[in-house]
Design brief:
195 residues, alpha/beta, Rossmann fold, seven-stranded mixed sheet, 7 helices, 46% helix, transferase, EC 2.1.1.-, O-methyltransferase activity, S-adenosyl-L-methionine
Length: 195
């Protein structure tokens, strides 16, 4: 279980991010961080799975990154987190350092499609929380990067933005190598497990 100072600070950061988002009329200027119950669920999954190699696609300002890294600290794992906007990645890195989990995170700045196409690593757990219009294009690389026989992909916002992610989820549902289900936490999580 994460220590109380960690939980309190991450909660305060989430409130700060929410206040920022409430003032933005342009969706792309919002931080759009994952909801606390979804982040805590991911932390629990990492512990249950004893995940060592974790990939996050979409760092933003690092709310989910902090939860992933805190859990990776417990499993002696590592989080690689991808963000296209340098300023957001730098903010997330600053918070990770403040909370003492920075040694468990590699911050990668650039287009996620480039990273995914070039990576040869296999990941125990992948969190996909980025621009939804690109998800279907990521699938061929994601399939290759998800650990066989029990690797997990979590896709965020599948209830709140159901129409946008529907084509992507249909692709996954028709792939017999993966089991999947929707979990009604936060904005909706789609959990995919390799068979």
């Amino acid at each position: 279980m994460p220590k109380l100072p960690f939980i309190q600070r991450v909660s305060d950061l989430y409130d700060q991010f929410q206040k920022h988002d409430a003032k933005q009329t342009d969706r792309l200027l919002r931080y759009r961080n994952i909801e606390p119950d979804s982040a805590q669920f991911l932390s629990m999954l990492i512990r249950i799975q004893h995940s060592k190699n974790i990939l996050e696609i979409g760092t933003s300002t690092g709310h989910s990154t902090l939860w992933l890294a805190e859990a990776a600290q417990q499993t002696q794992g590592k989080v690689t987190t991808l963000e296209i906007e340098p300023a957001r990645s730098q903010q997330a890195a600053m918070f990770a350092q403040e909370l003492g989990v920075n040694q468990y995170v590699d911050f990668w700045i650039g287009d996620a499609a480039d990273y995914l196409s070039e990576s040869i690593e296999v990941f125990d757990l992948i969190l996909l929380d980025a621009e939804r219009s690109f998800y279907s294009g990521y699938w061929e690389d994601l399939k290759r990067l998800i650990k066989p026989h029990g690797g997990i992909l979590i896709v965020d916002n599948v209830i709140s933005h159901a129409t946008e992610v529907k084509p992507f989820l249909e692709i996954i549902r028709h792939d017999s190598r993966f089991m999947s289900t929707t979990i009604a936490l936060g904005a909706g999580l789609f959990m995919v497990v390799s068979q």
